[in-house]
Amino acid sequence: MITLDGVSKRYGADAVAVAALSLTVPDGELCVLVGPSGCGKTTTLRMINRLIEPSSGRILIDGIDVLRMNPVELRRGIGYVIQQGGLFPHRRVADNIATVPRLLGWDRDRVETRVQELLELVGLDPRQYARRFPHELSGGERQRVGVARALGGDPPVLLMDEPFGAVDPVTRQRLQQQFLDLQHELKKTIVFVTHDIEEAAKLGDRIAVLSKGGVLEQYDTPPQILGCPATAFVADFVGADRGVRRLAVTSIERDDLSQPPRVNLQFSMDDAYATTAASDSRWAVVVDDSERLHGWIDLAPGQVGPVGDHLVPFEVQLPLGTSLRTALAEMLQHDVRWVPVVEGDRYLGVMTPNRLHAAMRRSVGGHPMEG
Question: Rounded CA gap, 237 and 60, in Å?
């Protein structure tokens, strides 16, 4: 856990870079510092590992005041990633990644094993990349090596200063997703700096919105930042389309789903009519004895024979936890009013436009809606 307690940085009597900043980053969470130029994002980040010394306040990592620690020892226990990875240009990839383990006194075999593990972890084949120099890599590859180097000594804390800001948009999106997958596996405590609210919303468990002079305007989850801006500054910074952006940071949960009638694949149409007689639905979901999804049937009267003879496959299905943005995109792409949601092979329910709206309300503490 990282705690900033009244941390300030002043340059001279009047130049305040960060003003009495207080916030806590829980273990295993990713906190994004976001705001316009001059709001103290990078200054705050560098005060955590004491590349910049704070003027006042306390910075605690797992309850230990970093200002009482040897700064060199402190930095060896904190991963640090900057744009383009900040690699040593004269060292090969393997040597870059091995920097901190060697400083920590690891033996040669352990260092080599760690380098190979980390290259594989960030999706780079050690046989192809270990002996290359940074200038022989693409921008995305350099950034992945930078992340690998930051993880070299298996630090509990990572500091990342606009690590994806210098790559093209397509590579950036791919790196963001790879980083999310990596964080899901490693659960590091991370402070991440960006000026891009979309990147902040996509990556962050919590977002700290800073204004000029390092003033904390709001510190909350992405749905709350986008759905309930605390100040006019936050509302202006996240933009008028913040409602649409919330779709990307709100995931489908079980309680969001509608439950239309369901019938068994082995039923006859007479069985299906009898099972759904109490419902006014014009269609039913078809599942088997293991609740696996097979499709749907129209409940128009007069149909005979096995349910399977009238089965219509779903064009798309979504796993539980999919973003509302993806759900809406699939509805529009396939021109349907509902999409089924599954967990593994098991059918759970359907997402409809009304339930999607209810999920948006739920994400910011609104009252649930029927439909």
Answer: 29
Could you give the CA distance from residue 30 to residue 177 in angstroms, rounded to a whole number?
14
Range of the domain at 327: 254-363
Q: What is the pLDDT of residue 366?
A: 57
**Tell me, what's the pLDDT at 369?**
43
Is the predicted pLDDT of residue 332 greater than 60, yes or no? yes
The number of domains in the chain is: 2
Q: Tell me, yes or no, whether 59 and 142 share the same domain.
A: yes
Residues 289, 245, single domain; the answer is: no
Average pLDDT over residues 182-188: 89
Per-residue pLDDT tens digits for 230-259 = 999 999 998 877 778 888 888 899 999 999
pLDDT at residue 282 above 60?
yes
Give the pTM: 0.76
Q: Are residues 49 and 178 in the same domain?
A: yes
> What CATH number does residue 274 fall under?
3.10.580.10
pLDDT of residue 370 exceeding 70: no
Q: Is the dihedral of CA 267, 273, 278, 279 positive or negative?
A: positive
